[in-house]
Design brief:
Number of strands: 19
Largest sheet: 10 strands, antiparallel
Structural class: alpha+beta
Low-confidence stretches: 1-5
CATH class of the largest domain: Mainly Beta
Cofactor: heme
Strand content: 15-25%
Keywords: Heme, Hydrogen peroxide, Iron, Metal-binding, Oxidoreductase, Peroxidase
InterPro entries: Catalase, Catalase_AS, Catalase_clade2, Catalase_clade2_helical, Catalase_core, Catalase_haem_BS, Catalase_immune_responsive, Catalase_large_C
Organism: Negadavirga shengliensis
Number of helices: 17
Mean pLDDT: 93
CATH architecture of the largest domain: Beta Barrel
CATH superfamily of the largest domain: Catalase core domain
EC number: 1.11.1.6
Number of domains: 3
Radius of gyration: 29 Å
Distance between the termini: 60 Å
């Protein structure tokens, strides 16, 4: 019998390189005797296993990552000397980590939460970390409140519940006493907190930074990531069901998109503000609870990032990557944002516990592509072997090396900002405006987005047991919008503010107006709405469920899968059993069964023609449930040929579709439901349009659907 040719790398070894020929049984004194202590292989294997877990991140514990590259569109030398932002031909490697914030590593992806969006640029000047979120603002203005915020939003300390959820008394008690959180709360209660995909959500640097050019000229800057696929969200009912059916939904989506070559892409945008314009606007530009409305300060798109490679080892890469807002390159500097200033301490400090010591930058995922050359030595997990015996500066024994870069070599130079003032624990007057941009956000939403915010408040505050907390929250909402406060109060069964409280609210709002008198402000910002910014020229990344049973038209199934692939989408065949569907000429693999998936993980459903197939589905409650649930969630649905009969067993039977005759067209579309006699080019054109819309909120009857 021939033996397979083995390479040395194929053999199992100990951690020290000794080949191992048996790893299924411990070394014992006889087959039934005790384990002998000199079983060094067992001891080494068990020791490593016992220490494999490191402390998870306090926040952003659950994440997914990918490698990619970034290229700038044109030189930004007028604004910054950062080399990776100068040459359009320069390719800068990146690693991006997306994450939820509140939950543990084992929690679900689709919780209502902020999402982390952290990017490490491996530049030729060292690493630059843009550590942001999918929301442009934050709950608090000063980092000293960060421990309180996280303590409040994490599970209750006496019972360790709820996991990955803000829907409990502690968090909302904190928020009800911290009105500065109101703008962020509007974002968290909105559809922005329920991203359909990591590739379909925006990213923001949150804080105000500086660009500094080679002449020392400074501009304030905000960073934005704009997804080329557009922004899309789930609905709350879907999120809760996906958490049980597919808890790794967003992580899996990212992995599969890259594996199939449908690479997530984002454009990097910047808002640039001259220093002399710092005080021209109706918001403090250093306040992390405020945005710079795009209608006042436009976002300039300066480059594109493409994520095209999945990690090889989740722990070594995605888990061990260490981000820090203080990892800067020449030409980018900080502002005096007090939340950013506090992060500069916290992020560096946390790595000492999480990654075991001060040498975390030597872990391959954190290692810069440029040479690291300094006098740091020793410490846990030190890997670099220093070539010089001199570890201090100044020195003569090492010829003064490593020497400092001269100014002409452009080592990192902090912007020489003039600083003066007394030591105080105070906030600037502009930081005392807690409601105007929360109102701006509300005013910018479409009707359906406003309804979702109201329903989100009903869910979150409906789980709060203390009536006083709920009344305080409604009081704050009354500062944002009267109708919003009234509808939320009615839904959770608490009173609205009385006349005296409303007079106090009006006084508060008048005070805010006086702060920003004669400053530039806007009443609404269309850029904040997902619905008002739908991208309808692509269905990249969408997942399409193809419902079919034995007797289905196999050629139609194949057409749908091929068409989906050409659109950078993914079509999956679903049936009541696994295996293959076949006819006399061809067979097609069944990708999923109703037992292993659900309608909530798909963006659209197509039911193919074939009388035998449709007859089986008419008797299958799972198939009918798929249709009902997709309809209720306002998703695109397509029915081909005989599949129209399925509507007769659903509340959609009231839709006025008819099989083709002299009075009815061959293809019909009503509120995102398409019926076609066959899958010809006209059908694909109409179907593309309804899928690109993502949701069809005007759909009638959806509240009557039992799903």
């Amino acid at each position: 019998m021939m033996k397979d040719k083995k390479l040395d790398g194929d053999f199992l070894t100990t951690n020290h390189g000794q080949k191992v020929n048996h790893t299924d049984d411990s070394l014992k004194a006889g087959p039934r005797g005790p384990i002998i202590m000199d079983d060094h292989h067992f001891r080494e294997k068990m020791m490593h296993f016992d220490h494999e877990r490191i402390p998870e991140r306090v926040v952003h514990a659950r994440g997914a990552g990918a490698y990619g590259y970034f290229q700038v569109y044109e030189s930004l030398h007028d604004y910054t000397s950062a080399t990776f932002l100068q040459d359009p031909s320069k390719v800068t490697k990146v690693f991006v980590r997306f994450s939820t914030v509140v939950g543990s590593r084992g929690s679900a992806d689709t919780v209502r939460d902020v999402r982390g969006f952290a990017t490490k640029f491996y530049t030729d000047e060292g690493n630059f970390d843009l550590v942001g979120n999918n929301m442009p603002v934050f709950f608090i203005q000063d980092a000293i409140k960060f421990p309180d915020l996280v303590h409040a939003i994490k599970p209750e300390p006496d019972r360790e519940i709820p996991q990955a959820s803000a829907a409990h008394d502690a968090f909302w008690d904190f928020v009800s006493l911290m009105p500065e959180s109101m703008h962020m709360i509007m974002w968290v209660l909105s559809d922005r907190a329920l991203p359909r995909s990591y590739s379909m959500m925006e990213g923001f640097g949150v804080h105000t930074f500086r660009f500094v050019n080679s002449n020392g000229k400074s501009h304030f800057v905000k960073f934005h990531w704009k997804p080329i696929a557009g922004i899309s969200s789930l609905v709350w009912d879907e999120c809760q069901k996906i958490a049980g059916k597919e808890p790794d939904f967003n992580r899996k989506d990212l992995w599969e998109a890259i594996e199939m070559g449908s690479y997530p892409e984002f454009e990097l945008g910047v808002q640039i503000l001259p220093e002399e314009d710092e005080f021209k606007y109706g918001f403090d530009i250093l306040d992390a609870t405020k945005i710079w409305p795009e209608e006042l300060i436009p976002v300039r798109l300066i480059g594109k990032m493409t994520l095209n490679e999945n990690p090889t080892d989740f722990f070594a890469e995605t888990e061990q990557i260490a981000f820090h807002p203080g990892h800067l390159v020449t030409g980018i500097d900080f502002s005096n944002d007090p939340l950013l200033q506090g992060r500069l301490f916290s992020y560096l400090d946390t790595q000492l516990t999480r990654l075991g010591g001060p040498n975390f930058q030597e872990i391959p995922i954190n290692k810069p592509i440029v040479e690291v050359n300094n006098n740091q030595r020793d410490g846990f997990m030190r890997q670099k072997v220093a070539k010089r015996p001199v570890n201090y500066f100044p020195n003569s024994r090492g010829n003064g090396c490593p020497m400092m870069a001269g100014r002409e070599d452009m080592g990192y130079i902090h912007y020489p900002q003039e600083i003066s003032g007394n030591k105080v624990r105070e906030r600037a007057e502009g930081f005392k405006d807690h409601y105007s941009q929360a109102t701006l956000f509300w005013n910018s939403m479409s009707d359906i987005e406003k309804q979702h915010i109201i329903e989100a408040a009903w869910f979150e505050w409906g789980k709060v047991e203390d009536t006083g907390i709920k009344e305080r929250l409604v009081y704050h909402f009354a500062h944002i919008n009267d109708s919003l406060a009234t509808k939320v109060a009615e839904g959770i069964g608490v009173r609205v503010p009385n006349d005296g409280e409303m007079e106090e609210i009006r006084t508060n709002l008048d005070r805010i107006d006086k702060i920003w008198k004669d400053k530039r402000r806007v009443g609404e910002s269309p850029a904040l709405s997902i619905e008002n910014n739908k991208k309808t020229d692509s269905i990249k990344g969408r997942k399409i469920a193809i419902l079919a049973e034995d007797g289905a038209d196999i050629q139609t199934v194949i057409k749908i899968k091929d068409w989906s692939k050409k659109q950078a989408a993914k079509g999956e065949v679903l049936s009541s059993k696994g295996g293959k569907l076949s006819d006399k000429s061809e067979a097609v693999k069944i990708d999923k069964t109703y037992l292993t998936t659900a309608s909530v993980v798909y963006d659209s459903i197509i039911v193919v023609n074939g009388k035998d197939s449709v007859d089986k589905q008419l008797e299958n409650g799972d198939s009918l449930h798929f249709l009902n649930e997709a309809y209720k969630h306002c998703k695109p649905i397509a029915l081909i040929g005989d599949a129209l009969e399925l509507l007769g067993k659903t509340p959609m039977s009231e839709l006025p579709f008819k099989r083709t005759n002299g009075d009815h067209p061959r293809i019909q579309e009503i509120n995102g439901v398409v019926f076609s006699e066959e899958s010809d080019q006209d059908f694909w054109n109409i179907y593309f349009d309804v899928v690109a819309q993502h949701r069809h909120w005007t759909r009638q009857l959806k509240e009557r659907v039992p799903a």
